[in-house]
Automatic annotation (TrEMBL):
Residues 17-91 form the Replication protein A 70 kDa DNA-binding subunit B/D first OB fold domain. InterPro entries: NA-bd_OB-fold, RFA1B/D_OB_1st. It comes from the Eukaryota. Pfam families: DUF223. This is Replication protein A 70 kDa DNA-binding subunit B/D first OB fold domain-containing protein.
């Protein structure tokens, strides 16, 4: 039997659920259910790579800044609609301090990285609070 050591002892490993201690935050295996509240126009960093910046709000009202680079910028610019809710599967989180030339609005420590492995599904059955359009 596969087990996991926790602060409270040892428990059987649940293959469908991993704790934060077990999964490094920078892995691109996270799933977010969120509403797109802002989608910027596609811009280019100095070396010419396009990027799309998006602000999401989850069910708890937490704002999450997300960025898609290169050909993914076009893909998600076409697929995402402001005001619609989605399930983003296979996203990662990156350090905003290590990202050059992208101006973040929320001034958070991390941003959501949307990449080639990210899968997008409509999420009509979740309730996400409405926020004013300005941040």
């Amino acid at each position: 039997m596969d087990v996991v050591r926790t602060r409270d002892g040892v428990r059987p490993r649940d293959t469908l659920f991993r704790t934060v201690e077990e999964v490094h935050i920078f892995h691109d295996s996270w799933r977010i259910r969120a509403k797109v509240v802002y989608k910027a126009r596609i811009r280019r960093i100095r070396v010419g790579i396009p990027y799309l910046r998006i602000i999401l709000v989850d069910e708890e009202g937490t704002k999450i800044e997300a960025v898609a680079y290169d050909d993914q910028a076009d893909r998600f610019n076409t697929a995402l609609r402001t005001g619609s809710a989605y399930v983003f599967s296979n996203v990662g989180f990156m350090d905003t301090e290590a990202t050059f030339e992208v101006e973040f609005n929320l001034r958070a420590d991390l941003y959501c990285s949307i990449g080639r492995r990210t899968v997008l599904d409509a999420a009509a059955n979740i309730i996400i609070p409405d926020l004013p359009p300005r941040f």
